[in-house]
Amino acid sequence: MSNNQQTQEIELKLLLHPDHISALKNAINQLANLKHGEEKVLVNRYFDTSELALRQLDMGLRVRGCNGALEQTIKTAGQVVGGLHSRPEYNVDISTDEPNLILFPADIWPASTDIELLQQQLKCIFSTDFTRTTWLIQHDNAQVEVAVDQGWVAANGKQEPICELEFELFSGNAATLLMLAQQVATVVPVRLGKASKAQRGYRLAGQQQPQKPDATLVDGMSLGQWLNSWQTLEDAMSCFADDAELCQQYWQWLTDLLAALPRVLGERALDESISGLALWLIGASLQDEEIAPTLQLAHLQQDLRYGQLQLQLMRLLLLKSA
Fold this sequence. Notes:
Shape: globular
Order of helices and strands: EHEHEEEEHEEEHEHHHHHHHH
Radius of gyration: 20 Å
Mean pLDDT: 87
CATH superfamily of the largest domain: Hypothetical Protein Pfu-838710-001
């Protein structure tokens, strides 16, 4: 742990079904230049005010316990492109399980922020407790930590499972994260993860609604916007799985979105290996009309080609932005 250290967190988050954890770990162990790390239990408490003052500043405040040590972390505004997360974060070693805002650099706060009042109003909103298994990989002058997280998000007596794979860049080119993820995706069904553990916690606590899908026409969308819409619709169907009528609407939007992919890609699709994957998914999404949309989506997500397509599109997006 560190003392008042600022870092730029860059990570690629993938989601998977718990049934595939064993196969996932075997696949990771086959990657070259790998050093197995340790398995540790992380106990996390997320803090905010009743009015979600930190959330309104696009900040996330956490106290993490591990092996008897405590660290407070605050993450400030960042961005998510597909499943690639990039956010500045500040970490400080502490001796109690309550955060102390004065320990963070003063310049991270807006000028009008009353730090003392904010401190007084803090309370624990939700928790995320999980077991993390890590590996360290050296590849093409990049150093990457691979982490598998299994556990629970909990709030208000409710909980949801955590089953995630994260590639975090310690040094080097972010494209390495994608390359490693693509290797794993040839063996294990994975998909891009847009929502962070903190976002899921706020939702479970009833403090945040999932992002509403945009039902506007997709013509004219950039690839980044299209990929973001795909993940938004996936997320919405998961959050509203009990509302059959709403999920049917989201499913229709999703199939329309997928059908528009060749137009979004343009002629580039003719030269990319994603063409076959895209055609498969477009066709597969139009089958089994009598099956509930949530079940259709879950079935597609367990096919290796689903995550492979998402990662191929991420690769194309990175190439365009390079």
